[in-house]
Amino acid sequence: MYELLRYFLIGLPIGITFRTKIGYIAEVEGSSMQPTLNPNISDSDYVLLNRWSVWRHGIDRGEIVAVTSPRNPSETLIKRVVGLAGDIVVTHGYKEHVLKVPEGHCWLEGDNSSHSLDSNIFGPVSVGLVIAKATWIVWPISRWQSLQSSTLKHK
């Protein structure tokens, strides 16, 4: 019993540190990133969310990121980076048709723009809300693959 408690007391802080600093696996729900993620809506993809990469390298256009929802901080959204600070973006239904992304912000969109809660709804997102990059689809096994950056919009 003492050994089990010892492993728990050692393993728990290591696990928490790994999840908060390195990364974790998360289920992707919904259709906003179709066809890249969840191409068959009845089967959810699970992705590796790489926190280390955001902390170490920041974000780039075309990458898929996890972000704390600007509207509901208890939700995490997965979207593609379309624009970074200083970029001019053409919006899809936002109050301004053309917008310059402000300093410290990014413009995020779902690949399936007709079914996405993204910057076209809530505007530029603070880069401080970006928590991780989605770097691999890890489940289902048939979809195991690296997620590549893409500046092409999927319709």
- Could you list the spans in which at least 5 consecutive residues all have pLDDT below 50? none
Order of helices and strands: HEEHEEEEEHEEE
Largest sheet: 8 strands, antiparallel
Query: In DSSP terms, counting alpha (H) and pi (I) runs of 4 or more, how many helices?
Result: 3
Q: How far apart, in Å, are the first and last alpha carbons?
A: 56 Å
The overall average pLDDT, rounded, is 87
Radius of gyration equals 17 Å
Broad structural category:
alpha+beta
Count of DSSP strands: 10
Mass-distribution shape: globular
Strand content: 25-35%
Which percent range fits the helix content? 10-25%
Gist?
The protein has 155 residues and is of the alpha+beta class. 21% of the residues lie in helices and 32% in strands.
Description of the molecule:
There is one protein chain. With 155 residues, this protein is of the alpha+beta class. It is 21% helix and 32% strand. It contains three helices and ten strands. It has helices at residues 2-22, 51-57, 119-122, and strands spanning 23-27, 46-50, 64-68, 76-84, 88-90, 98-100, 105-109, 125-126, 130-139, 145-146. The strands form two sheets. Strands 1, 2, 3, 4, 7, 8, 9 and 10 form an eight-stranded antiparallel beta sheet that branches. A two-stranded antiparallel sheet has the order 5-6. Helix 1 (2-22) crosses helix 2 (51-57). The longest helix has 21 residues, at 2-22. It is globular. The model has no long low-confidence stretch (mean pLDDT 87).
